[in-house]
Structures are given as C-alpha cells and as structure tokens.
Design a protein that fits this description.
313 residues; mainly alpha; 72% helix; globular
C-alpha cells in the first residue's frame, strides 16, 4: 500500500511538471512534427553519445584500476553501456549506478564493498567535471552589476552545496564503521600517489559532458533551427544534468526540462517557445542509442576478477 502511494505521488509530480512545461510553452507539441533531421547531423549526435559512453567507461576503469582490480576495459564498457540504458528509465538519473554497483560487487570474491564504492567516486568526479563547465560558461553571462554578481555567486554556491549534499546523502547510508574501512589513510595515500590519474579522470568528465552538450547544441541549431549560442546551451544543459540526476522522476524526466528551459529563458533573448523539445528529443535519441544494451543485459555473463597482490586501498 505504501509503495503504491509513493508511486502515485511521484507520478502525480511528473504530470504536474509536464503540465507546467506545456502551459508555459516550453514544450510545443506542434514542433514534434516540424523538425528537420539531417542524416549527417543524426550520425554526429550518435557519435557524440558513443564518445560520452566510451569516456565514461574509461573514467570508471581508471578508478577501478587505482584499486588494483584487474578488470578488462571491455567488461567495464559493457556494464557502463547497460547502466546508461537504465539511467534513462529508473528514478532519477542514477538508476543505472545501482546496477553498476551490483555488477562490480559480483565481479570479485573479496573487497566487494570497496569496489561498489568506486561507482560513488566515479559519480562524484563526474559532478566535478560538470561544475567546472558551469563555472567556465557562466562567466560569459556575467554583467558587472553588483546585484547580479551576488546572484551568480549564490548560484555557484548552490551548485557546490548540491554536490556536497549528494555525496553526504549517499554516504549516510553506510554505517560508520564501514565508512572508516573505506575512507582510511590508505585511501588518501592512494589519492596523493595517483593525483595525475585522478586529474585525468576529471578531464575525462569534462570531455564527456562537452560531448553531451555539443549534441544538444546540434539538436537546437540543426534540427529545431533555434538561434541559440553555444554558451547558452552548454550552461543550461550542464546545470540541468545535475538537477536531472537528483530528481525522483523516471530518468529525471520533466525536472531536467524545466531547469534547462528556465536557464535558457534567463540567459537568452531568443524566443524560447518549445525550447524543452530539444531536451525531450535528446532523451529519445539517447534511449534509441542505448536500446541494444538490453541485449547485453539479457545475456550478461558474470566473471570473477582478482586484485593484484599489493592494493592501494
């Protein structure tokens, strides 16, 4: 009974968000019949999505290897690809992360919790990359007005608070003694000894989200013919991804569209009628690209890997 009530409330929340988007003309249903799909543009969008998934797998693989766990990049890519599909349909934008944690947990006979913790580290590094993109592109919209500067500072602090809150929210589910086993002196020693690799994972995060943002820009300019500049798309989409991840609707549907549309409305002087269609269209393209992941999910073969004899943590 309780689960049904919670499901109903979440579904109602989703309906309210979609109604808000349509009522404020952020989603224009007529535009779904008025776009132009160019084969070259569509191919490039698929290529950018592929690059983002490949980079995500490489980033996570580096984190896992810092734990001295000998897993193949091919296997990490397979798990990442499967998780990308489930990220699109599970509650929030992190549903696939639970699947990643489950798969990596069952890939070893020892240190299972620490391996699962790699998913959390990977997600946090991803948010760091997003935060850097937001800081870079928000500068383009700075007008040297004292009141506006205060608002922008408040906005950046809010973003930092969201990142910290997300980390603490996930960590609080671990018992204190388990937390101490994971975050110990060896953990910080590993970070110190491998700072160059960790910085590289942050660079990979930036590349990943730049690829996603550019695919959004292609949809806005080549498919829906909006005259929006690159900065507007990169800023609005980067912020919306954060809120999309933290939302409780399936795949973050609705929440990301609202944030994306409102930021575009604030930073752009263009007509934003139907602007959320860009976000919806990207979701559809991304889901289509990830559909073959169901094949890998159905025929997934678990495999046991081993740690090297000397582990960093």
């Amino acid at each position: 009974m309780k689960k049904n009530v919670i499901f109903f409330l979440k579904f109602l929340f989703l309906i309210i968000i979609l109604a808000y988007l349509i009522q404020n003309k952020f989603i224009d249903l007529n535009l779904f019949t008025q776009f132009t799909i160019k084969p070259t543009t569509l191919t490039l969008i698929f290529l950018l999505i592929f690059i983002s998934i490949l980079v995500a797998a490489l980033r996570w693989s580096i984190i896992i290897r810092l734990m001295k766990f000998n897993i193949e990049l091919k296997k990490v890519l397979e798990i990442t690809y499967i998780s990308c599909f489930f990220n699109s349909i599970f509650l929030g934008g992190f549903g696939g992360d639970f699947l990643r944690a489950y798969y990596i947990y069952n890939s070893s006979k020892t240190n299972k919790i620490k391996l699962s913790f790699s998913v959390l580290i990977d997600r946090f590094i991803g948010f760091v990359g997003l935060f850097l993109i937001v800081i870079f592109f928000v500068e383009s919209f700075i007008i040297y007005d004292f009141n506006l500067i205060l608002k922008q500072i408040a906005f950046l602090l809010l973003m930092l608070f969201i990142l910290i809150y997300l980390l603490l929210f996930i960590l609080k589910n671990y018992r204190q003694n388990l937390y101490k086993k994971i975050i110990n002196k060896k953990f910080f020693f590993t970070i110190k000894e491998n700072i160059s690799k960790i910085l590289f994972t942050i660079i990979l995060s930036v590349i990943l989200f730049l690829a996603i943002n550019f695919s959004m820009y292609l949809i806005s300019s080549s498919i829906y013919n909006y005259e929006l500049n690159l900065d507007s798309i990169f800023l609005s989409n980067s912020v919306s991804i954060v809120f999309n991840t933290l939302s409780l609707t399936p795949g973050g549907i609705g929440v990301g569209e609202v944030v994306f549309s409102k930021i575009i409305e604030i930073v752009s002087n263009e007509d934003v009628k139907g602007i959320a269609n860009i976000y919806v269209f990207w979701r559809i393209i991304y889901l289509i690209f990830c559909l073959p992941a169901l094949f890998f999910f159905l025929f997934y073969k678990p495999k046991i890997y081993k740690f090297k004899k000397t582990r960093n943590f």
